[in-house]
Amino acid sequence: MNERVLRLVDELFDNEGALISGRANIFYYSGFTSEDAMLFLTKDRCVILTDSRYTVQAKQQAAGFEVFIGRPADFLKEAGVRYIWYEDEEMTVSELSRLKAAAADSFFIPRQFDISKPRRVKDAEEIKRIAAAEALGDAAFSHILNFIRPGIKERDIALELEFFMRKNGASALSFETICASGVRSAMPHGTASEKIIESGELLTLDFGCVLDGYCSDMTRTVAVGNPGDRQREIYETVKSAQEAALCEIAPGKVCRDIDKAARDIIAGRGYGDCFGHGLGHSVGIEIHESPSLSPRSQDILEPGNVVTVEPGIYIEGFAGVRIEDLIVLTENGYRNLTSSDKELVIL
Ligand code: ZN
Ligand code: ZN
């Protein structure tokens, strides 16, 4: 059994097992990358439940695991384990009822939090991979700065950015690329459209890639042609809000207080109603992990957390700005994994 599995099964009683069905936790505990699989872990067994398409892959990626080829329901029926932890956010109602019908003597206990909890603190290898993914994002951003000009479509910018990341090793995108210009930049999640970039507009790019199983995430807003005074003002406000939040970040701090540091700056300059989303989220195998830097989060930051800091101002019918860095909590503070410049770039 590997370290991660040992840590989890240490929390199980002898008559308990953990059934892991979410892609991210399967990868975290076993290294196995199939979507059609589950893991079953007890104090003395660690098993991959999958089908015959993955026999070879499971042996290669998850050394030390038994491989069961067949239906999870049949496996659980035979296993005879009394209490089964399962991921309630990663199981459909119909899957669960099928399993319950097969393993009629077992009790199924929703334990999503406990199964996912270790992923909140990243180890050195995970941090290395996230940093490499973020560095690829930085490289993609400097590449795209030479490509953006008035007259080009948002969609073409997004595609060029995505092609660069895939060409340089990314296995996938972390999420659908956000590329929003002019009035569209007021949509925090404006994915690339057919809109043509015009001179004098702000352009927000929020993008990430998956490298060696780990996600990156960054946002920069640039000006295409000379921006107006109000555009500059909201840019500088968001930049100051991010600086204020970064100054607060340290182990032991409460997540909502970091959010508040940024929010106070934005509200203080009269844009309180224009920042609707939380300040940040954790990033790892998945793009949205815990803890998050939200106005309500009472989580305490600890070394090894990897979180985004992404304040924004969005003014409907006018424009929007967001600046997002990815940082890792260290023993004394934090290290910024994003190195792209934050002075307003004018193209
Ligand atoms: Zn982002
Ligand atoms: Zn983000």
Architecture overview:
With 347 residues, the chain is α+β, with helices and mostly antiparallel strands. It has two domains: 3-119, Creatinase/prolidase N-terminal domain (Creatine Amidinohydrolase, Chain A, domain 1, 3-Layer(aba) Sandwich), CATH 3.40.350; 121-336, Creatine Amidinohydrolase. 33% of the residues lie in helices and 23% in strands. The chain is built from ten helices and 19 strands. The strands form six sheets. It has a six-stranded mixed beta sheet with strand order 4-3-2-1-5-6. The protein has a three-stranded antiparallel beta sheet with strand order 7-10-11. Helix 5 (93-102) links the parallel strand 5 and strand 6. Helix 7 crosses helix 8 (154-167). The model has no long low-confidence stretch (mean pLDDT 97). Bound molecules: zinc ion (2 copies). The site of one zinc ion has 4 residues, from loops.
